[in-house]
Amino acid sequence: MNDPGQLFYNDDPVPVYNGGACQPFAFFSKAGGEHPYLDPAVIQNLLNQKPPAINARPVQTALLSMLTMYKKQSAKSDLMCISETGSGKTYAFLLPAIQTALKRIEKNKGKASKSPSVLIFCHSQPLAELIYANLTALVKNTAVKTCLVIGKTEFIKSTEFDIGVCCAGRFRNHFEGSKRYVQIDVTKLDLLIIDEVDESMKCADDFMLYFEIRQKTSCPAYFFSATLDGSFSLGDIFRDEDCFCYQHGELNALPPTVIPVFWECDRSMLPEAYLDDDGTVHAIPPTQNNTLLKCNPSDMIFFILKLQWDNRAATKFIIFTKKTVIADFLANKLALLGIKARSIHAKKSAEARRRCFEDFKAGVYKVIVATNQLTRGIDVDVDVVINYDIPTSRTAWIHRSGRVGRNGKKGAAITLVDTKDPDYQTKAVLREIVGGLPPDKKLPTFLAEYLNL
Ligand SMILES: Nc1ncnc2c1ncn2[C@@H]1O[C@H](COP(=O)(O)OP(=O)(O)OP(=O)(O)O)[C@@H](O)[C@H]1O
């Protein structure tokens, strides 16, 4: 977290306020003094967060520096911002978004704008809901009007808002407009923000929408992600002739706060953990020096949870799996074994997801079983991530595992590996995952043998 990262303007490294005597952005609140960029109400809202945001994270310092030290250039230029999972990118783009909207409101002398000043796009509804919750908390007691434009909600009736948080599919209806859908005018946009850019650009329809928006406006666009693996095209959407880039941490790697762990499982083994007729849990605790012996993956998860709880090592867990049906199966199996768990995936409503997160925060459930839809951007306080299966790409594994080790806190990411899995693709992804680990990371023997390393 002490590493300030590096800001570039047209490939040249440029300094940011990162320490020494001159650090107006290291703190959001300077006792007795006005912040050089942020509105006092927004600062108060940052301080009211739980826990309060008092110090700016490096990515936030860099962006605020860019907007003030290089005001003329940043008024026109795009930004590509790559910073590790959990490093604070959400506030890093929300703060400029809010200030941009406030500037428009001031220019309009408080009169409502007929079209948005800032649009923030992200690839999934749960992420949009989370960003929107952060946004509404930060604009409290300001004149900024916000709007959530995502599927499975009512169509918006008015375009008189300043900042919209959107998913491309629903936004398309309002972009084109019709008798049924009010049309959002993007020609007056002041700032376009695309979060999880590498994921968003992989979908052809989303890509086309961003392309069309960029054709209609000359405003700057900011792109954010923790990964950028080259498996997608930025096309003309990122205007790289005059641009800023920021990077914090190693590209496409886990932050050092995440400890990756690999455990061997065997899908063909019969269940060992079961509940008998009188409700007693029978489990053969397969441990040896605190390491689990091989068993089937759902039992493995039960034993991992027990081991961690018995040793008071961790309290809250998120388990990832590729399939909705497996997420439901695992949550049910854990519940049968007396562990309160909830599954959360695309087939659940926004309201069910919101309740699940609230209950999880309150400690009603200690375990969430999620699908890939929750892989990116989701910020819940967990100690351990368990990868029940190997995801479809190394970047997905980084994002899944990056749900721990956030905001400077340490956490473990356990990946279950079935060495009998015949799927060539899974093995190839695992090889990429292992290849991207720090060179001094010691691999368990079973994994090194399985991958012929
Ligand atoms: N300045 C700050 N002070 C205190 N907490 C902060 C600060 N900035 C961010 N946080 C907290 O750190 C956590 C991680 O931030 P955030 O979700 O923005 O990370 P991210 O970089 O977007 O991660 P990901 O790539 O996984 O989406 C959040 O809980 C957020 O509230």
Give your account of this protein's structure.
The protein is 33% helix and 18% strand. The chain is of the alpha/beta class and 453 residues long. It has 2 domains: 6-248, 3-Layer(aba) Sandwich (Rossmann fold); 258-450, P-loop containing nucleotide triphosphate hydrolases (Rossmann fold). The strands form 4 sheets. Strands 2-1-9-3-8-7-4-6-5 form a 9-stranded mixed β-sheet. Strands 10-19-18-15-17-16 form a 6-stranded parallel β-sheet, with helices on both faces. Helix 12 (394-401) packs across helix 13. The protein is globular and about 70 Å long. The two termini are 32 Å apart. Bound molecules: adenosine-5'-triphosphate (ATP). Residues 53, 55-57, 60, 83, 85-91, 226, 377, 379, 402, 406-407 line the site of adenosine-5'-triphosphate. This is ATP-dependent RNA helicase. Keywords: ATP-binding, Helicase, Hydrolase, Nucleotide-binding, RNA-binding. It is an enzyme of class 3 (hydrolase). GO terms for molecular function: ATP binding; hydrolase activity; RNA binding; RNA helicase activity. RNA helicase.
